[in-house]
Amino acid sequence: MTCMICGEIEKKFDVRYVPELLKPLAWLIGIWRGETGGKAVFPTIPIFTYGEQIEFALPTSGLKALKALNYTAFAWDMNNREELHSEYGFITMKPNTKEVALSTVMNNGFVMIEQGPLHGKSIKLILHDIGRISFSRDLPVYGV
């Protein structure tokens, strides 16, 4: 529901249309944005500050496959607004469980599957599998 102060809610964010399987994830639906300046710290590059936006939305098609929410995320450099990273994917639940799975593909050539339990409004995702295109930057992967 909406108070209509901001206008009519887009169907992709309207929780009245959440499939039964995904109702435990309905609290994620919307746009989450942080512009307070996250800090990225890596041993091989200088520390930098970034902003990030994540969107969880209902699918707009009537696919009959396993129901999932659409997921998009991107990060940008807080100094010059240059896009640093983007990813797209799906988040779903294993039927009749509290097991959540997030599958993502990223503009750096990586594909990831993360899975974990849902506890109320908290999800602890663990890296389950990772893949990459053959010519992506060869970064080390930990935790598989």
UniProtKB/TrEMBL annotation:
Domain annotation THAP4-like heme-binding: ranges: 22-138
Reactions this protein catalyses: peroxynitrite = nitrate
InterPro entries associated with the record: Calycin, Nitrobindin, THAP4-like_heme-bd
Pfam families registered for this protein in UniProt: THAP4_heme-bd (PF08768)
Domain of life: Eukaryota
SUPFAM superfamilies xref list: Lipocalins
PANTHER family linked: PEROXYNITRITE ISOMERASE THAP4, THAP4 PROTEIN
Protein name listed in UniProt: DUF1794 domain-containing protein
Lineage: Eukaryota, Metazoa, Ecdysozoa, Nematoda, Chromadorea
